């Protein structure tokens, strides 16, 4: 969830870039790498992350960092601000506020799109970017995806 929230909050600033997320949770690194998970809640977050990356035109790459080496995140989570600022002097002086709604609906808050509007946007992009015969095949797959979601 923290990586999804960070991407929502700062994704606009990352537009057109590839950003590296270092994480000490190998399952999260795997889910971000594959873009999928068998766990329903993790898959929801993976979809949210995919929507946010597409909306902001940012690529997110996850890399594993051993827990004992993850001193920056540990200092932050333990409110050890002197250590945190020593290791990350470029960090903002004040924390970024996280809207409550973001914690409940990350993709909606990030994109400002509800699902029907998102579906229409996907359809517009699909229609304008591919041949009509390919569009029919993709349309069929898109419909199966909608039923899956």
Mean pLDDT: 79
What's the main sheet like?
2 strands, parallel
Basic shape: elongated
Number of helices: 9
DSSP helix fraction? 55-70%
Structural class based on helices, strands and sheet pairing:
mainly alpha
Topology pattern, helix = H, strand = E? HEHHEHHHHHH
Number of strands: 2
N-end to C-end Cα span:
20 Å
Radius of gyration from the CA trace?
A: 18 Å
Arrangement of strands in the largest sheet: 1-2
The total tally of domains equals 2
Q: How large a portion of the residues is in β-strands, by DSSP E?
A: 5-15%
Poorly predicted runs: none
Can you give a write-up of this model?
This protein is mainly α. The chain has 2 domains: 2-109, no CATH class; 113-149, no CATH class. The chain is built from 9 helices and 2 strands. A two-stranded parallel ribbon has the order 1-2. It starts with a helix and ends with a helix.
Task: Reconstruct the topology from this structure.
Elements: H1 2-10, E1 18-23, H2 26-34, H3 40-56, E2 59-64, H4 71-77, H5 81-87, H6 100-104, H7 106-111, H8 115-129, H9 132-148
Parallel strand pairs: 1-2
